[in-house]
Amino acid sequence: MQIVETNLQFSRAPSKRTRTGRIILHHTASADVSAATIHGWHQGQGWIGIGYHFVIRANGTIERGRPEDTIGSHAGPQGNGDSIGIVLTGNFEIGAPSTAQMVALAELINELRSRYGDLTVIGHKDVMATACPGRNFPWDDLKRRLEAKQVDQWKLDIIAKAKAAGLITIDHDPDEPASKWFVLQVIMNALGGK
């Protein structure tokens, strides 16, 4: 798992978090945007900078937001002090996260749990009166992915390469039958692995 470092500049240093007990999930309720864009939005509201610790883009890229060891500004006084805020780009009131986002989210949660212990994972709506992360957020899918604790990165690599080559136009579920992955890989090999 790779996290893209964004090196965002805050108007002052965020306060350090003394305890980490949970992860709070969000959606941007917008198009696919970068951590830098969200940083600008939050600064425009008078905040010191982005409130989330991680941003997961539509293609599964994970971008750094607020420094991980600091108190976020994403879930109000009932949620910020002991949590890591993760936002997925997109509006999950009208759509759903991409497969790549869900794979990246499970990887990130498992990595954070390896360092902080068995963190509880909840939605923004569990600590504030909001619909976030949206009615279409696939909680059952996330639970299944976290229980499996193994994400087939090689399948995501094939998806990315096949999309770049124009062979497919949408994300595919890594849990689809093995024959599909074999065929995609054979085609990619025939194209010279481009």
Polypeptide structure, described:
- By secondary structure, this protein is of the alpha/beta class.
- Helix content is 32%, strand content 12%.
- The protein is built from five helices and six strands; from the N terminus they run E-E-H-E-E-E-H-E-H-H-H.
- A six-stranded mixed beta sheet has the order 1-4-3-5-2-6, covered by helices on one side.
- Helix 2 crosses helix 3 and helix 4 crosses helix 5.
Q: Which helices and strands occur, and which strands form pairs?
A:
Elements: E1 3-4, E2 22-27, H1 35-44, E3 54-56, E4 62-64, E5 83-88, H2 99-116, E6 120-123, H3 139-148, H4 153-164, H5 178-190
Parallel strand pairs: 1-4, 2-5, 2-6, 3-5
Antiparallel strand pairs: 3-4
Helix pairs in contact: 2-3, 4-5
Going across the biggest sheet, name each strand in turn: 1-4-3-5-2-6
The number of distinct structural domains comes to 2
Could you give a short account of the major beta sheet?
6 strands, mixed
Distance between the termini: 21 Å
Discrete helix count: 5
Beta-strand percentage? Answer: 5-15%
What spatial form do the alpha-carbon principal axes imply? globular
Total count of strands: 6
CATH class of the largest domain reads: Alpha Beta
CATH superfamily of the largest domain: Peptidoglycan recognition protein-like
Rg computed from alpha carbons, rounded to a whole number of angstroms: 17 Å
Low-confidence stretches: none
Order of helices and strands: EEHEEEHEHHH
Mean pLDDT: 90
Tell me the helix content. Answer: 25-40%
Q: Could you say which structural class the secondary elements and strand pairing correspond to? A: alpha/beta
